[in-house]
Design brief:
The complex is a heterotrimer of chains A (about 375), B (about 150) and C (about 400).
Chain A (H helix, E strand, L loop, with lengths): L1 H8 L6 H9 L15 H5 L2 H4 L3 H15 L5 H5 L5 H22 L6 H14 L9 H19 L4 E3 L9 E6 L8 H10 L11 E6 L22 E6 L8 H5 L5 E3 L5 E3 L9 H5 L5 E3 L14 E3 L11 E3 L4 H4 L6 H5 L5 E5 L6 H8 L15 E4 L2
Parallel strand pairs in A: 1-8, 2-11
Antiparallel strand pairs in A: 2-10, 3-4, 5-6, 7-9
Helix pairs in contact in A: 8-9
Chain B lengths: L1 E4 L2 E4 L20 H6 L22 H4 L8 E2 L5 E2 L5 H4 L4 H9 L18 H4 L17 H6 L2
Chain C lengths: L1 H17 L4 H27 L14 H16 L3 H6 L6 H25 L22 H28 L6 H27 L12 H27 L6 H31 L6 H8 L8 H19 L1 H5 L1 H19 L1 H7 L15 H29 L10
Helix pairs in contact in C: 2-15, 3-5, 3-7, 3-8, 3-14, 5-6, 5-8, 5-15, 6-7, 7-8, 8-9, 8-13, 9-11, 9-13, 11-13, 13-14
The chains are: A alpha/beta (about 375), B alpha+beta (about 150), C mainly alpha (about 400).
Chain lengths: ~375, ~150, ~400
């Protein structure tokens, strides 16, 4: 019975109401008794509630066809002498069979958990773009992801879907005269954001430059290992600048990346198709791609996650620095700021006139990289 | 504790409770000159080497007052509370303290949101040897070396 | 109803037609299938392991796939340049060439789409790109424009020849009221797809090597040289292996197009080189890397110094009527030009765009064997598709395939 219901919940909107009320009953995202908060009532729901009769089906088809009639080019194109209703029914039936096949292939004799996993995977595969989701849908996908992690790794994570706060616009300043190249920021970033350990992915680069030659990035060393600060050198960090006019956002063909209200440029990892156009468009080397499946040892996983931030990524998607959205949206500094032993990194709300970032911008000689490109980075450099 | 410096009001860590043997007068029960006379007391603070400016500019008495060990001592002999040691630093390092008050120098520890909490000078700099020693970076990326071969 | 039956019959007949042929034909198709299967095997490795099995890195994030994609868009666009004179100006010389040209356009587009899919990190979520079901970042993203442009171009180029062939198959004349507007549209569209593809790169302020107003026009010029050059070679092969009669005059007319386009392309190349090397700025570094290498990194030098002499030599040879009118020399020139432009517009354009990186770092790119085999597999698929299309259309045009009305 529950198998029957399974594939009907991802349906054509016919039983949507029921499944919504069902899942709202329990936060675990499971609709079939996967967690203790489910009452017996769930399993008592009779078959008829999830199986629609032929009449209902026809009515539904009729409904959806009424709106289709005008733009249906089916007949003109193929000149098929078939009754449209029959055609539609056949199509729908084959779709249902397909969906059922996928479901049954991993269900009939498998355990409840396996079925639930398959259900979650299915819903995750066909969910929409996070940017366009309603608050409930956002929460639903977050719940599903938490539950999926629980099922797979037997560990609990917390995942937030917290939106931007009003009157907050994040900005970042970097003191070139203070940075000593200790790399604590890089370490903290990797730990905080669950970046792939195998490829040693890092969002932050620290460039070691020679004194007296200006900013010569091409001659700088961004992978040094010697006692720091080295004599006659200074250090300059780069990462994603979360631009106000981000070129990476403009080029994305599927709007998988966008600028949030608080100025953070984020990615929906599940919507990204991995075309890497944004990478080509970024003038600051701010974006990273998962060339293979990212891996983090289980005991090193940061379990305090945000959907748009440090949740586990998959292979073939982009990722980037989000100023630690999971931290900054709850009032904390990004991990790099917190870890920096020199205080070279300053982070704050640009809209708050009393913030330290504002004081720096108003009292120091600040500049940004490649300002001529019109990207309006929210990342300023200054010196003492 | 809350302080106000150059129109900025924010919090810094309280200091006195962090000093191992505060109050100082528990040992320094009488003025230093008198204590140094007798040899019945063990020598103390012998391990402190002053490495802060040169000996023309600074010695122990620049900041400490032998007659009032519980407080710090300004250049003009005014007393400065241990909790507000930044005022002592500000005598020479006025620019740094101005930057610190504004937020450009020093370390923010409480997150970006209000209330603002920052490290005091002595949380990072040892006042007797304020220069921070060099060290090795905590990380080295071996994959990057491969990629750039 | 009748038309529908005729259509079914066409599909059946052409299926029978393409599965029968000479021994050489079977060997050729078997060879292509073999390459395709090897390519598919390597693609399955790529699907399994991720794009890390390619030579691409965070520094050079597009490689062989996108290079080939860019080049093939040009081939697809150019093939249709033969359409205009035939259909609209009733220039009879081109008539046979056109169906071949459109077949070429279709197979080039199929290859383009295959290369794009091969380059994706998440091919299973490509439905996100389908309008209405997915989210389409139109008009902001040039890639969105490109998807629309390429797919509608594919549709146009399938439907026009299909209409003509279908009518010929039924023994009727093609309706000029249908195909002339279609032909004009497809010519405009051809320019469109190529410009849009150029804008894909041209619009990136992050990459000064691409962010160059000449990129679009140069794309067109090189496309109209390389595309028809390929058509000439294909026509030569068809002349040899089938009874389809293509006059020397047709080939020579196409050669004229190739020549003019190659000359324009060369002028633009010189203009670019002048700008990069007479007054070098730090934006010229990519060009320096391409032509002379930077900091001892010289991976592209053998490529570009093969391409440039071939390009110049072929253009000079084509310029002389005497040489051009000698068909064997012409074929040689076309082959040279084709290779030269493939290098210049593929490797020579995409890879240096990423080198040096945004902060001046140089990481070189060498395609991996997986990438090379997938690429070969896709080319084999293109050749396979083209052979089928060409064989069917030749069969219909020769009258070997005709609809037999059954009552």
């Amino acid at each position: 019975m529950s198998e029957k219901k399974k594939w009907f919940t991802l349906d054509f909107g016919l039983s949507k109401k029921q499944s919504v009320t069902e899942s709202s009953r329990c936060g675990c995202g499971s609709a079939s008794g996967g967690c203790s908060s489910h009452t017996n009532k769930t399993s008592n729901l009779s078959k008829s509630e999830y199986t629609i009769s032929a009449d209902e089906f026809d009515a539904a088809v009729e409904d959806s066809m009424a709106s289709e009639t005008n733009k249906d080019g089916f007949q003109q194109v193929f000149n098929v002498p078939m009754d449209r209703r029959t055609a539609f029914r056949k199509l729908t039936a084959s779709l249902l069979i397909g969906a059922g096949a996928v479901q049954t292939s991993c269900s009939p004799f498998a355990g409840e958990e396996t079925k639930e996993k398959a259900q979650i995977d299915w819903e995750e595969q066909f969910k929409g773009n996070y940017k366009l989701m309603t608050q409930e849908e956002k929460q639903a996908t977050v719940d599903r992801l938490v539950r999926a992690y629980q099922l797979r790794k037997k560990e609990n994570i917390t995942m937030s879907a917290k939106d931007a706060t009003k009157d907050v616009l994040f900005g970042y300043a970097f003191n070139i005269s203070k940075c000593q190249g200790y790399m604590n920021c890089v370490n903290a970033c990797v730990t905080e954001n669950n970046q792939d350990r195998n490829s040693e992915m890092q969002y932050i680069r620290i460039h070691e430059m020679k004194d007296g030659q200006g900013f010569k990035f091409n001659e700088a060393d961004d992978n040094f290992y010697h006692e720091v600060p080295a004599a006659g050198h200074f250090y300059m960090g780069t990462q994603c600048f979360n631009c106000d006019e981000p070129p990476c956002v403009d080029v994305c063909p599927v709007e998988a990346t966008w600028r949030e209200e608080d100025g953070l440029v984020v990615i929906d990892y599940d919507w990204c198709i991995g075309c890497r156009y944004c990478m080509a468009a970024c003038p600051y080397d701010g974006r990273r791609f998962n060339w293979s499946k990212p891996e983090v040892p289980e005991d090193e996983v940061n379990k305090n996650q945000h959907y748009l931030g440090n949740r586990m990524r998959k292979k073939g998607v982009m990722e980037k620095c989000t100023f630690c959205i999971q931290r900054s949206r709850s009032g904390k500094d990004p991990a790099c700021v917190e870890a920096c032993p020199t205080g070279a990194r300053i982070f704050g709300n640009l809209l708050d006139p009393d913030s330290t970032i504002r004081w720096v911008l108003e009292n120091k000689q600040v500049f940004r990289l490649k300002e001529d490109l019109g990207t309006e980075p929210k990342f300023w450099y200054f010196m003492d | 504790m809350e302080i106000t410096e150059a129109d900025h009001t924010f919090f810094i860590p309280e200091r006195k409770s962090q000093i191992k043997s505060y109050a100082c007068i528990e040992c320094h029960s009488k003025p230093l000159t008198e204590m140094q006379k007798g040899s019945e007391l063990e020598q103390a603070h012998w391990n402190i080497k002053l490495n802060h400016a040169n000996s023309n500019a600074m010695n122990c008495a620049t900041c400490h007052n032998g007659n009032d060990m519980n407080n710090l001592n300004s250049l003009t002999g005014k007393s400065i509370d241990f909790n507000k040691s930044f005022k002592l630093c500000a005598q020479c390092h006025a620019n740094q303290v101005k930057d610190w008050a504004g937020g450009a120098h020093g370390k923010n520890i409480g997150g970006w949101s209000k209330p603002r909490v920052a490290h005091n000078c002595i949380n990072c700099h040892n006042p007797h040897a304020p220069q921070i020693a060099s060290k090795w970076p905590v990380r080295f990326n071996t994959q990057k070396v491969k990629e750039r071969k | 109803m009748e038309t529908f039956r005729a259509f079914i019959s066409l599909v059946k007949d052409s299926f029978g037609y393409i599965t029968h042929g000479s021994k050489a034909y079977h060997v050729w198709m078997f060879f292509l299938t073999l390459i395709m299967l090897i390519g598919m095997y390597f693609y399955s490795i790529q699907l399994d392991e991720g794009l890390s099995v390619t030579g691409m890195t965070d520094r050079v994030s597009w490689g062989l796939y996108i290079s080939n994609f860019t080049f093939l868009v040009g081939v697809a666009a150019a093939a249709v340049m033969l359409v205009m004179p035939t259909y609209v100006l009733h220039d009879i010389d081109f008539k046979q060439a056109v169906l071949i040209g459109e077949g070429l356009a279709v197979s080039a587009l199929v290859m383009c789409l295959a290369f794009v899919v091969a380059d994706m990190g998440g091919p299973s979520v490509l439905w996100h790109m389908i309008p209405i079901i997915g989210v389409f970042n139109f008009p902001s993203s040039m890639l969105a424009w490109d998807v629309i442009a390429l797919n509608s171009y594919l549709f146009i180029n399938i439907s026009i020849p299909l209409d003509i062939l279908f009518r010929h198959y039924q023994g009727k004349e093609a309706k000029s009221k249908v195909y002339i507007p279609g032909a004009i549209l497809s010519v405009l569209w051809a320019v469109g797809i190529h410009l849009v593809t150029a804008f894909l790169y041209q619009g990136l302020q992050a990459r000064p090597f691409w962010n160059n107003a000449l990129l679009g026009p140069r794309f067109l010029a090189s496309a109209f040289a390389a595309g028809p050059a390929l058509i000439i070679l294909v026509l030569a092969a068809i002349r040899k292996f089938s009874e389809f009669n293509i006059a020397d005059k047709t080939i020579k007319k196409i050669a004229l197009i190739v020549t003019v386009a190659a000359q324009i392309n060369l002028i633009m190349l010189f203009s670019e080189l002048f700008k990069e090397f007479y007054a070098p700025t730090h934006h010229s570094e990519s060009a320096y890397y391409l032509f002379f290498g930077l900091e001892g990194k010289t991976a592209l030098l053998p490529w570009i110094w093969t391409a440039i002499p071939l390009n110049i030599l072929a253009t000079i040879m084509l310029t002389f009527h005497k040489l051009r009118n000698n068909l064997n020399v012409l074929y040689l020139c076309c082959a040279m030009l084709f290779v030269a432009i493939w290098i210049e517009k593929g490797f020579g354009l995409i890879v240096p765009g990423f080198i040096p990186g945004p902060y001046g770092k140089i990481e070189e790119y060498t395609p991996s064997w997986v990438e090379i085999w997938v690429t070969l597999g896709i080319w084999a698929m293109g050749a396979f598709v083209f052979t089928m299309l060409a064989k069917t259309s030749i069969g219909i045009e020769l009258g070997e395939l005709r609809y037999k009305r059954k009552k």
